[in-house]
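I am writing to request your help with a piece of structural work I have in hand. I am sending you one protein, given as its amino acid sequence and as whole-number tokens for its backbone shapes. Kindly check, if you would, that the fold set down in the tokens agrees with what the sequence suggests. You will find the record immediately after this paragraph:
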Amino acid sequence: MHGNFIHLTPENLDREHLCCIIRTKKCHPGIEAKRQWLAERLKEGHVFRKLDVKGCVFIEYAPLETAWVPIVGDNYYYIYCLWVSGEPKGNGYGRALMEYCLQDAKKKGKSGVCMLGAKKQKAWLSDQSFAKKFGFEVVDSTGYGYELLALSFDGTTPRFAPNVQKQNMENEELTIYYDMQCPFVYQNIEKIKDYCAANAIPASFVLIDSLQKAKSLPCVFNNWAV
């Protein structure tokens, strides 16, 4: 395994690339929206650690109390993303990133680390079979296909918020909840808005722009829900 890992910080955020979307120097609206989102989250203990190359090798996690997901628990880290794709695969980078997160959690006195999973692996979710090799186990489920995985250090476990289990909402039209944690979200929202307008499909697009909104969502959410 070769290469150095670095953390995004307020000082380097404006010049470091964000691994999900690799682009030239031309501005990409999704990346710029992600930078703005990260600028606030880094103040809350959010961690973005990546390989210091122009490639998709990174982990992104945060204290569960400030993670924008409808999951509750005390003193946990929540992993938003862990990705290694393309040429860097097969070099042990994923293991190195996961081990760093677990060591960081223990060093900070956390009760454990958790992440979103599903009974059937979703393409947009980090590899849960990989996480289970480190001891992650299913600690909660929704009844509609999603699971919460956790590696507990002290026997406690997080859980989905009660509103996720109820899965009730007043709006009956197509409804999309989203935030700017993922750089792909911006362009996808624009495409879907155009499609719905062209085909007269009633739709609501709800920007999740606060922790309170994220914690009270009526469904599973990592940065996107339909």
Observations:
- The chain has a mean pLDDT of 91.
- DSSP finds six helices and twelve strands in the chain.
- Residues 50 and 72 are 27 Å apart (CA to CA).
